Amino acid sequence: MPISIRHLLAGLAVAVVLAHPSVVSAQANLVGYWGPLYDEDWLERIPGPDVGDYAGLPISEAARKRAEAWDASLLTLPEHQCKPHPSTYGFRGVGQLRVWEDRDPASQRLIALHTHIQWQEQHRVIWMDGRPHPSEFEPHTWQGFSTGHFEGDTLVVRTTHLKAGWVRRNGLPLSDRATLTEHFVRHEDVLTHVSMIEDPVYLTEPLIKTNGFEWLPNGRMEPYPCRPADEVPREAGDVPHHLPGNNPYEREFAARHGLPVEAAAGGAETALPEFMMRLPSLPKATMAPVSELPEGVRE
């Protein structure tokens, strides 16, 4: 039976689709400018959380000790003033987000996605061409090494090779062994970002958070120059910190809100309903008497 031109063209079309499955995959278009959305997480992301507020976070004892030693004055040191957020935190920060693509000029195959967040100019490359992650001995950076792929219309990204960073801007740390898995889901003009952080040093289980962005049809990106300066006169080698058991603000959050110290101290169990049932039986936190506060913080 002779083959018609129509059947021949149909067969060629099927062959093209099978040879290039990306033609029919539902890859969402993330290119453009996006503005961060804030809701119940506004307090954590804008003014920042209180010292000692670790409730509901699956932190290890090592993370808690590091946080208790932290002092906000650390950020006045020149070497800490222009640090960008690592990619484990950057998408929860402030500033507009811009996304653009790198494509092969001949095949139009997607090679990489770039993200740029305005605050401290956080530029990140997400490799989409299937390349492997480098050796564990390669340098670690603030944005890490990211590879991505689409699962349907969801962008899935995995990031390794990160510098030591932070879970929250109140001293809760992340180690340089942390890894990040993200899902970016677009629903019309809203982009939902789901992050899962794993850290064998400072987390006892994965930490999962979500936040969103709104598409900006007339978005723009301004530069963010930063030059460190000596803001506070200090002796060479003086690093703001608190020695173990000597942080006068450690119990302030729990005492102000009438919470037990055990609840504010965090840990995976503090996010469970069973822990909520224990709260009435736990003693509430109280502030230390002024006489017990270290010199320099007494009013």
What does this structure look like?
The protein is an alpha+beta fold. The chain has a domain at 32-216: Lipocalin. The chain has seven helices and eleven strands. The strands form two sheets. It has a nine-stranded mixed β-barrel with strand order 1-2-3-4-5-6-9-10-11. A two-stranded antiparallel ribbon has the order 7-8. β5 and β6 form a beta hairpin. The radius of gyration is 24 Å and the shape is globular. Mean pLDDT is 89; it is low at 1-10 and 12-24.
Features:
alpha+beta; 9-stranded mixed beta barrel; Lipocalin; 7 helices; 299 residues; 11 strands
> How many DSSP E strands?
11
Give the N-to-C terminal Cα separation. Answer: 99 Å
Helix content: 10-25%
Number of helices: 7
Structural class, judged by helices and strands?
Answer: alpha+beta
Strand content: 15-25%
- The H-level CATH homologous superfamily of the domain at 32-216, spelled out, is Calycin beta-barrel core domain
Average pLDDT rating? 89
What top-tier CATH class of the domain at 32-216 fits best? Mainly Beta
CATH topology of the domain at 32-216: Lipocalin
Helix and strand succession? HEHHHEEEEEEEEEEHHH
Measured on Cα atoms, how large is the radius of gyration? 24 Å
For the biggest sheet, the summary is: 9 strands, mixed, barrel
Query: In CATH terms, what is the architecture of the domain at 32-216?
Result: Beta Barrel
| Poorly predicted tracts of residues | 1-10, 12-24
Principal-axis shape equals globular
Order of neighbouring strands in the sheet with most strands: 1-2-3-4-5-6-9-10-11
